[in-house]
């Protein structure tokens, strides 16, 4: 038969698991709500991205068509998407780091990260 001390230890462990589960739920909710907005230096282009870097909004100042060529405009849009994506990746890292401190965040969320970073390397299971 389990002693009173063992029951207290079990209750403490259950409370810790419940607390960690709640913290993970809160982190997941915050991750779903993450977004970042980047604005070009000239204020002509504003881009907002979501937690996975998906573009949620692109706002263009009406004067942009008079001030920028099509290639300058597309370049500015791509640049702001990059800025916003790096910002939201940093916020994601901050949220996740307390839960998985040994995760190689720079490898997963770094600037040079591409889809292939998530694929298995040859010779690995």
UniProtKB/TrEMBL annotation:
Keywords: Coiled coil, DNA-binding. Residues 10-37 form a coiled coil. InterPro entries: YbaB-like_sf (IPR036894), YbaB/EbfC (IPR004401). It holds the Pfam family YbaB_DNA_bd. The keyword Cell division does not apply. The keyword Transcription does not apply. One of its GO terms (molecular function) is DNA binding. It comes from the Bacteria. SUPFAM superfamilies: YbaB-like. This is DNA-binding protein YbaB. It comes from Nonomuraea rubra.
